[in-house]
Amino acid sequence: MPAITREEVAHLARLSRLALPPDELDTLATQLDEILAAVAKVQEATEGNPDVPATSHVMPLTNVYRPDEAHPGLDRDAALAEAPAVEDDRFRVPRILGEEA
């Protein structure tokens, strides 16, 4: 008898918005039970064993990004000097939503 029942699989399917045929519920219950048994075995082997460090990933992860460095940006006048149109010290762009200003 699997620890996961047919009704629990049907409930999970409803929550996941999956339409499962009735004949698949028993098969999935057995498969999910086997998966949980495998996870329990791994947990038994690692629980309370100081030689097995807790990890969230099998492979060590390293940050591949460079460190952030602050650099001076363009000042307002230099940025606006390259704009095709300027109005009130801002970029002037065409209206696209038809809203009143």
Automatic annotation (TrEMBL):
Its EC number is 6.3.5.-. Keywords: ATP-binding, Ligase, Nucleotide-binding, Protein biosynthesis. It catalyses: L-aspartyl-tRNA(Asn) + L-glutamine + ATP + H2O = L-asparaginyl-tRNA(Asn) + L-glutamate + ADP + phosphate + 2 H(+); L-glutamyl-tRNA(Gln) + L-glutamine + ATP + H2O = L-glutaminyl-tRNA(Gln) + L-glutamate + ADP + phosphate + H(+). InterPro entries: Asp/Glu-ADT_sf_sub_c, GatC. It holds the Pfam family GatC. It comes from the Bacteria. Allows the formation of correctly charged Asn-tRNA(Asn) or Gln-tRNA(Gln) through the transamidation of misacylated Asp-tRNA(Asn) or Glu-tRNA(Gln) in organisms which lack either or both of asparaginyl-tRNA or glutaminyl-tRNA synthetases. The reaction takes place in the presence of glutamine and ATP through an activated phospho-Asp-tRNA(Asn) or phospho-Glu-tRNA(Gln). PANTHER family: GLUTAMYL-TRNA(GLN) AMIDOTRANSFERASE SUBUNIT C, MITOCHONDRIAL (PTHR15004). Belongs to the GatC family. Heterotrimer of A, B and C subunits. This is Aspartyl/glutamyl-tRNA(Asn/Gln) amidotransferase subunit C.
